Amino acid sequence: MSDIAILKQMIKATATVPLEAHHNKKQVKLIEPDLPSCIVTIHGMPNEDQVIVIKADAFQSPSTIFSGSKGECKRADFVIVADTDTKKVILCIEMKAKTKTSPEWEIIQQLKGAKCFITYCQKIGKEFWGEKNFLDTYVYRFVTIRNININKRTTREKITDAHSIPEQMLKISSPNYIQFSHLIGGKQ
């Protein structure tokens, strides 16, 4: 069974975002949980059996256990896990309606929290599904998308492998047309 198939068994459908057909291709519409008018569309998504889009914020905050003093109770808005023909990637995405909504250090905490959530899922896959290499070969990418409700402009960010840690997240502002392949960047 593929890692994506296991995740689809593990994660409730209510905590995922379905793909949509768009001109014989797939796309996904991400809606900022706190601002329903704040929508980003990612075009060129992999096929249904190659990807899962998870609402990471649906995972209840572990604040009943952790103090939260280091941001360990935060999570990014979405996690996309994809196993394409060319790359296995875990994409953590935080959306912000405006530029000045949160300080960068807080966004970094949210991205780190999403990574911890996936690490938890990875452990569940290994322990309960018996898949000893579950998600081991995937690379992480971290993205923040800002100014979502501002006038759109062509998204021409320089994409490199530099966004493989939260502190060096890819920052996209005023997105007009986001391609999945640009978000995952680089070579495997």
Automatic annotation (TrEMBL):
This is Uncharacterized protein.
